[in-house]
Amino acid sequence: MNIDQLREEIASDEGVRLDIYLDHLGLPTVGIGHLIREADAEHGKPVGTQITPERCRQLFALDIAVTVEDCRALFENWDDLPEECQLILANMAFNLGRNRLGRFLKLRAAIANYDYDEAATQMADSKWARQVPNRAGRLIDRMRAIAE
């Protein structure tokens, strides 16, 4: 999978913030959609605290690596999937996290069967698609295009 392309797509969808902010769920976030965890140096710091561009790159690199690991764990046929499918699923995994994407049982079954049209249907029929309609719409259209 083209990791540079994945980085570009996710950065475009997430945006880049060099200050701590609260995401749509009220959770402290920084950089490129990085949810601040207890182990992070930024943990407990107030909203508005600045980070360096280098720190943003560090966090993003770690998050991308975790995202790909999560996809390998969730999709047994990960290495056999078309690159476009991998990019779509990795984008979803970055946005949702492993646990939430793991609950997309019908999507995961469709991917296991290489049924990309059904995968797109399952993506569209989700709370996620209603929460992030622009991002979801683009990814769903791309998944349907694989099926064609």
What does this structure look like?
With 148 residues, the protein is mostly helical. It has one domain (3-147): Lysozyme (Orthogonal Bundle). It is built from 8 helices and 3 strands. The protein has helices at 3-14, 53-74, 83-96, 98-102, 105-112, 116-124, 127-131, 133-147, and strands at 17-22, 28-31, 34-35. Strands 1-2-3 form a 3-stranded antiparallel sheet. α1 (3-14) packs across α3 and α5 (105-112) packs antiparallel against α6. The radius of gyration is 16 Å and the shape is elongated. The two termini are 21 Å apart. The mean pLDDT is 96.
Count of individual helical segments: 8
Strand order, sheet with most strands:
1-2-3
Q: SSE string, helix = H, strand = E?
A: HEEEHHHHHHH
Report how far apart the termini are: 21 Å
CATH T-level fold name: Lysozyme
Principal-axis shape equals elongated
Which architecture does the CATH hierarchy give at level 2? Orthogonal Bundle
Query: How many strand units?
Result: 3
Rg, alpha carbons: 16 Å
Mean pLDDT: 96
Properties at a glance:
single chain, 148 residues, 8% strand, 3-stranded antiparallel sheet, Lysozyme, mainly alpha, elongated
What's this, in brief?
The chain is mainly α.
